[in-house]
Design a protein that fits this description.
Layout (H helix, E strand, L loop, with lengths): L1 H29 L2 H30 L6 H6 L6 H6 L5 H22 L5 H23 L20 H4 L3 H15 L1 H13 L4 H32 L10 H26 L3 H23 L15 H22 L15 H33 L7 H24 L7 H8 L3 H13 L5 H30 L4 H11 L2 H25 L2 E8 L3 E4 L2 E13 L2 E12 L2 E6 L2 E4 L7 E3 L1 E4 L3 E10 L5 E10 L1 H19 L17 H8 L2
Antiparallel strand pairs: 1-10, 2-3, 3-4, 4-5, 4-6, 6-7, 8-9, 9-10
Helix pairs in contact: 1-2, 1-6, 2-5, 2-6, 5-6, 5-8, 6-9, 8-10, 9-10, 9-12, 10-11, 10-21, 11-12, 11-14, 11-22, 12-13, 14-15, 15-18, 17-18, 18-19, 18-20, 19-20, 20-21
């Protein structure tokens, strides 16, 4: 029953999305209001069908209906309920269904929120969304169907991949990643509509920017959660290894970040329209490439949990979208005429443009290093890998330059700046640069790139704080109290500006924390008998022995280690080895004692059969917690940025000739 109903719903979604896409493009070409209304109805229908189909699958998982092929593949009677629920995204077929579910929610929400606005664009936008939905409906209905019937259902199943059961972060990491990936479809639809219509007005820029910011927030947090999962589960003591699937999530984040910066310049100066549209299209294409990397099985990655044959199908879709986007850009980008100009390189908009060039260089560097081994294997039949030395040597200089621009760009004024303005803007933050560099050196930083990052980070931090509170200081000089000035300047009139500096502050902290934690950690491998101790830094660790715990889905062997700091015991940590029935080798889970200063990381390398001896990996890594905190701060800034504000001006869309000065006024609200 569940399998039949699920197949019926997915086939319905394929029919609805395909029909809606064709109708939407026709309505856009004819500027038909009635056609737009019907396109909107098809969008809602697609969302409803996907939601119900996903609910049917969750019901099948929870009730252990092994007559459904996907349940037979990932279900298990011994799996805890939370694992059963999240196993929807634990393997290929369920994850593609989850993609369709998230896409349906996005399409319905975007259609509803724009139902009364931007009529000349929306038919094309919804048609583009439904065209993408049609492809994923086809995947779910055919090559990656989770609703096939099992002729002779088993009495039990193997359960999902053990790595997905090994930490609760897998409850939230994949949904955040999908909300970021799938959400890029919405700004892609807006950008496609702008090209098809041949205009990109300031009024339409607002929903496009918001539609890009939302998945950017989710993708930012998802990347952090993925790094945190690797740090907490894999046991090697790091959070980023330039793994192909890690890179797959980073690539669209880089281009989306560049697109958000381009949108600011477009709004303020009336330029970079082509840049903005191109970067949005690139972000969507990179999410499809990321899906291929994650779900095709062609990349060897600890983050890739599926082996499948849908890779060629995704590549065909990627090629079709790429060719269509290039053709559209080639024929229509000239219609997006600039309404202003960049007055000089030494200006805020000049730095924004340079910033975007570096983001694009960063993207291509990571993309080449990730895809090149696959191309070599396809052409020559030889397997090779591009390791961390390549990425570090190529990316670190670009990343350091981005930190430099993070400080210099916001310090400069908009428009042409005089030499006196440049000196007055750029010289004071040298105090912060010197201070942070000296502190880092005093605390033991010796790596040249780390020290340079600290100097640039200190510069950017002073600029960020100064710019963040400048409007508050100005209002206080006019007589407002601190509270009134803060509320008026930061939350009522300058909310987006304030949010951007919160994001910048988080970015500075993240970059500095990554530089410090990756180059100044202390490592030691020890072998201890019961009762023996070992020291690392200010910590003394004593091995207390092991214990075994039988859990519903695994058997855990736990090493108990007492931790003392400066002679005072602080806690007992419990690194473990988890043995799952479907895996020959156990999976290690380290224990992490976290403080704001740094982490003590304890991971099991080996245990003897008696439990009397343990080989342990000990690490002290400074500032790791600041990475997680700062990324969340960036997310908070993004949320503040998309909270609606009342505009101080009304932009007349039909003429689409608002001067840059009007754009500047709108950008301040």
């Amino acid at each position: 029953m569940n399998a039949t109903l699920g197949r019926f719903l997915i086939l319905g979604s394929l029919l609805v999305s395909t029909t809606g896409a064709v109708l939407g493009f026709a309505a856009g070409a004819k500027r038909s209001r009635e056609g737009l209304k019907w396109t909107q109805r098809f969008a809602y229908a697609f969302a409803a069908l996907m939601v119900v189909a996903t609910a049917v699958m969750e019901k099948a998982l929870i009730t252990h209906d092994f007559s459904v092929s996907y349940v037979a593949q990932v279900g298990s009677l011994s799996t805890p309920l939370w694992v059963t629920i999240v196993s929807l995204w634990s393997s290929l077929e369920g994850s593609i269904l989850f993609w369709g579910f998230v896409l349906g929610l996005y399409i319905a929400a975007a259609t509803f929120l724009t139902r009364k606005d931007h009529e000349e664009y929306m038919a094309y936008s919804i048609a583009t969304w439904l065209a993408c939905a049609s492809f994923f409906s086809f995947l779910i209905a055919g090559p990656a169907s989770p609703f096939l019937s099992v002729a002779m259902p088993p009495t039990d199943g193997p359960g999902p991949n053990p790595l997905l059961q090994n930490h609760v972060l897998m409850i939230i990491h994949p949904p955040f990643l999908y909300l970021g990936y799938v959400g890029m479809t919405i700004p892609f639809g807006f950008a496609t509509a702008a090209l098809l219509r041949g205009r990109l007005g300031l009024a339409f820029l607002k929903p496009m920017r918001t539609a890009l910011m939302l998945p950017w927030i989710f993708l930012t947090i998802a990347i952090m959660l993925g790094g945190w999962w690797a740090y907490e589960v894999l046991g090697w003591g790091g959070y980023w290894a330039w793994d192909p699937v890690e890179n797959a999530s980073l690539l669209p984040w880089l281009t989306a970040t560049a697109a958000l910066h381009s949108a600011v310049v477009m709004e303020r100066r009336g330029v970079l329209k082509g840049w903005t549209v191109t970067l949005i299209q690139g972000s969507f294409l990179l999410t499809i490439l990321g899906t291929f990397m994650t779900r095709s099985g062609v990349f060897n990655s600890v983050h890739s949990f599926t082996q499948s044959s849908i890779g060629p199908t995704i590549l065909v879709f990627l090629a079709a979208v790429l060719l269509g986007s290039v053709a559209l850009l080639a024929t229509r980008i000239d219609s997006l005429e600039a309404e202003g100009r960049i007055d000089g390189a030494v200006s805020r908009e000049g730095m924004f443009l340079l910033n975007n060039l570096l983001f694009v260089l960063f993207t291509f560097t990571v993309l080449i290093g990730t895809v090149f081994p696959l191309v070599v294997e396809a052409l020559r039949g030889k397997q090779m890998s591009v390791g961390r030395p390549y990425f570090d040597s190529m990316v670190v200089p670009v990343g350091t330059a981005l930190v430099f621009l993070l400080g210099v760009g916001p310090a400069l004024p908009w428009g042409r700046a005089s030499k006196e303005q440049v000196r007055r803007s750029l010289l004071p933050p040298l105090i912060g640069a010197a201070l942070v560099g000296i502190i880092g050196y005093a605390l033991g930083a010796r790596n040249a790139w780390t020290l340079l990052t600290l100097v640039f980070g200190g510069y950017a931090a002073q600029v960020t704080l100064a710019e963040m509170w400048k409007p508050v200081v100005q209002r206080m000089k006019r007589g407002d109290s601190l509270v009134t000035a803060t509320v008026q300047a930061q939350f009522k009139r300058g909310r987006r500006r304030f949010a951007s500096y919160i994001i910048h502050a988080g970015a500075v902290i993240v970059i500095v924390a990554i530089a410090v934690s990756s180059t100044t950690r202390t490592q030691r491998e020890v072998s201890l008998a019961r009762g023996q101790s070992a020291s690392i830094g200010a910590y003394t660790l004593t091995f207390l022995g092991t214990e075994t715990r039988n859990e519903p889905n695994r058997v855990a062997t736990i090493a108990r280690v007492a931790v003392a700091k400066d002679g005072k015991q602080i806690e007992v940590v419990e690194p473990r080895m988890n043995q799952y029935a479907t895996m020959r080798e156990p999976i290690g889970t380290p224990a992490v004692h976290s403080t704001l200063a740094g982490d003590l990381y304890v991971s099991i390398m080996n245990l003897d059969g008696s439990g009397e001896n343990a080989g342990l990996l000990l690490l002290i890594t400074p500032m790791v917690s600041w990475i997680w905190i700062a990324v969340l701060l960036m997310g908070v800034g993004g949320v503040i940025a998309i909270i609606p504000t009342r505009s101080a001006v009304t932009v007349l869309e039909p003429q689409d000739s608002a001067a840059p000065a009007v754009a500047e006024t709108a950008a301040l609200t």
